[in-house]
Amino acid sequence: MFDTLLAGQPKRQAPLRILVADDQPLNIRILHEVFRNEFEVLMTTDSKQVVTICREQNPDLVLLDVVMPGLNGHQVCRQLRALPETRDIPVIFVTAKNTPEDEVLGLESGAVDFITKPINPATVMARVKTHLALKLQNDLLRSIALVDGLTGVANRRRFDEQFLTAWRRCQREQLELSLLLIDLDHFKLYNDHYGHPAGDRCLTRVAGILNETIRRPDDLLARYGGEEFICLLPNTAFEGAQGRAWAMLHAVQDQGLEHAHSPASAVVTISIGAVTMIPQAGDSPETLLNAADKQLYDAKQSGRNQVRG
Ligand code: GH3
Ligand code: MG
Ligand code: MG
Ligand code: MG
C-alpha cells in the first residue's frame, strides 16, 4: 500500500521525515538503525522539545516514548493535537507500558498506534509505513479540498482557515494584518461578448497573474467567489499592502488581455479594496472583510481599474 501510494503521488522534494523522541539514547539508537536507510530521522531525548521540533521541522510521523521526565508522552501528544500546525502529524507510542489501560490512555490522547518495547524492527517498520501512507493520503485529500477547481489557486475554505489563523496571531502579537479584495471590472460584459468558457479561461489567467505577484510565504491569494479574489497579507503595514495592490493591478493591466466591450479600456482590468488593522480583543474578522468590501465599492464607484484604501 505504501509503495503504491507513493507511486501515485507527485514527487516529494525531500525524503519522508520521522521524529523519534525517547529519554533513553539507547532506544533512540535502536530506532534510528531501523529507519535511517529509508527516512530522514530527527531525534530528541527531551520531551519538552517535541512540539517545537514538530512546528519547525514538520515531520510526517512521530514515534513517542510514554515515560519521560518533564512532560510524559500523553501530555506531549495532547499538545500536538491541540495545535493547528501539528494536529495532523500521526503519533505512535513506543513504550514498555503495555497493559490494556496504557493502550487506551495512549489512544485517548490522540495517538494512531501503540508499539511495545522491546521492539521488533520489522513490525515497527511495517506499522510506520502504514501510518505514513495514510498520512500522505490525508495530505493529498486535504490539498485537493483546499484548491479552487477552476483557477488552481487557494479556495475560499483555505482562505477562511488561514485568515482565522492569521487573525488570531496578529491579535496575540499585535501585528498589522492587511487584506486586498480584488474584483474583475465589467466581467459580465466579458462573458456576454466572449462566452462563458472564454470567461473561465480569462479568470484562470488573471488568477495566475495575481498569484505570480505573491512574494512572502505567509501571504495567500485565494478565489473568494465568482470573479472575486482575496489576498491575505499578515504582518503587513498599509503602505506595503497598497504597494502589493498596485503591483497586482499593473500586472493584470500590462498583460493586455483583450476586453473589447470594456467601457473604460480595451483590456481586462481589476479594482481593489485595501485595508489594514491591528486586531483588538473585541474585533471580529468580519470587520476587516466588510471594510475591504467598502473600499472595493469605492474603487468601482470611482471609475474602476484602481486601488482604494
Ligand atoms: P463590476 O466592474 O462592477 O465588477 O462589473 P461586473 O460585470 O464584473 O460585475 P457583476 O457582479 O455584475 O458580474 C460579475 C460577473 O462575473 C457575472 C458572472 O457571470 C461572472 N462570473 C462569476 N463567476 C464566474 C465564473 O466562474 N466563470 C465565468 N465565466 N464568469 C463568472
Ligand atoms: Mg522513557
Ligand atoms: Mg463581483
Ligand atoms: Mg466584477
Automatic annotation (TrEMBL):
Residues 17-132 form the Response regulatory domain. It catalyses: 2 GTP = 3',3'-c-di-GMP + 2 diphosphate. Pfam families: GGDEF, Response_reg. Residues 175-309 form the GGDEF domain. The modification 4-aspartylphosphate is found at D65. InterPro entries: CheY-like_superfamily, Diguanylate_Cyclase, GGDEF_dom, Nucleotide_cyclase, Rev_trsase/Diguanyl_cyclase, Sig_transdc_resp-reg_receiver. Keywords: Phosphoprotein. Its cofactor is Mg(2+). GO terms for molecular function: diguanylate cyclase activity. NCBIfam families: GGDEF. This is diguanylate cyclase. It comes from Oceanimonas doudoroffii. The lineage of its organism: Bacteria, Pseudomonadati, Pseudomonadota, Gammaproteobacteria, Aeromonadales.
